Amino acid sequence: MSCAAAWSPPSSALGRRGCRRARRPCSSSVRPRAAAGQHQQEGGAAGGVEAPRLVLHDSLDAAGVATAHARAARDGFEAQVGRLTRVSAEASIAISRGADLARAALCVAAEDDSLVSHSSVPLPVDAFIARLDDLSSGFCAGGNFPPYRAPPEVFFDYLDRYLYVHKGFRRTNGVSDVRTMYLHSVLTCRSGSALMLALIYSEILKTVRIYGLLDFDAEIFFPTDLNGLPRGYDKQKSKLGDESHIMTSESLLVEILRTLKGTFWPFQSNQSSSLFLNAVAANHHGPGSLGDDQTRSHGNISAVEMAAAKAAQHRLMRGVWTNVRFGDMRRALAACERLILLQHDPHELRDYAALLYHCGYYEECLHYLSSYQTAMVGQSPSNRLKILEDEAVNTLRARITLILAEDGWSNRRPAASYWTKNSEPW
């Protein structure tokens, strides 16, 4: 149940903030929650396949890396995913039912922060929730709110002016600065991606609705260009084609996590290929990819680029963060695991398996590849890229089968050999 549904309109922002802080993420394992499984039975895309364990936190623990804060943040995210039903997952973020999207986004940021820092203090999720509440309630006070019974056009004009002019929030594109994808950084720097700005916009609308000051159906137009800003409009005046610009609760979380996964994917030698093909191609050639049209000659790579790639590969083998261009295995794995918890697309099982292969978790990799192929039974590849990906899945599975057939392999554990206690994640 959302905060809006559980509370009557409060008289101050303090009431809503108290409701937020009263939520405590329940303790849970890293496996997909039962509520997420129920979501699949109601129509999820992954076919309800029960996946094996998620390995990131356990593998870091085995290597002597503290994961208490990361686990707590994952539990918080998982608790919000467990509140997504078929109805709430497909509802617009302007309605904001079920999961607390802001808290889920902050839990994502908190986990990633704990994975790449040595801080003994977790990211203060509740403090940033309070900051977001102050931002939202500020629109309803201090002369920022439109006149009583103002038409929707005037209401959204006031809201846009408050957020983008008075508060100075702006959109930033590009993957060079990943802070634009983390809600706490956007609230601090007031610069972020369209996804984060849309989330903040929806939180302001939620507060206005809680106060009982919204007497029409509001919707948020999500821009698909590189410069547009999320803006509200009266749903009763929707035009043909507006549906493609509506962001739902589930699609918002999926897009946030897929953007993080693509940003931190450790194998990005060919931007025209898929992430999975790049990861599989790294098994054969190092930098490069599969397919006649996607093969990249080493002669076209400069000596500086080759040296940087080798240095990045060395750091990645130690589990060390390099930079956005060369990926981050920890945060890529974390993004994949959270996407699996959402059970939105079976292809996430396949991509996660590719990373597990490079980490040396061959048994788990084989399990996830099997789960992926089971979920995809009856579906035929629709283009050449899909055919290449299916061939790569079969090739990778055959290679893992041969590795596991070696005598004594089951007695080896890859955690300590991949993650090291002294790895510096910067």
Question: How would you sum up this structure, described in words?
Answer:
This is Protein SirB1 N-terminal domain-containing protein. InterPro entries: SirB1_N. The protein is an all-alpha fold. The chain is about 50% helix and about 5% strand. It is built from 19 helices and four strands. The chain has helices at about 5, 15-20, 35-40, 55-60, 70-80, 85-90, 100-115, 125-140, 150-165, 185-190, 195-210, 250-265, 275-285, 305-315, 330-340, 345-360, 360-375, 385-405, 415-420, and strands at about 170, 190, 220, 230-235. The protein has a two-stranded parallel ribbon. Helix 10 (about 185-190) links the parallel strand 1 (about 170) and strand 2. Helix 7 packs antiparallel against helix 15, helix 8 (about 125-140) packs across helix 11 (about 195-210) and helix 16 runs antiparallel to helix 17 (about 360-375). It is globular, with a radius of gyration of 23 Å. Mean pLDDT is about 80; it is low at about 1-50 and about 285-300.
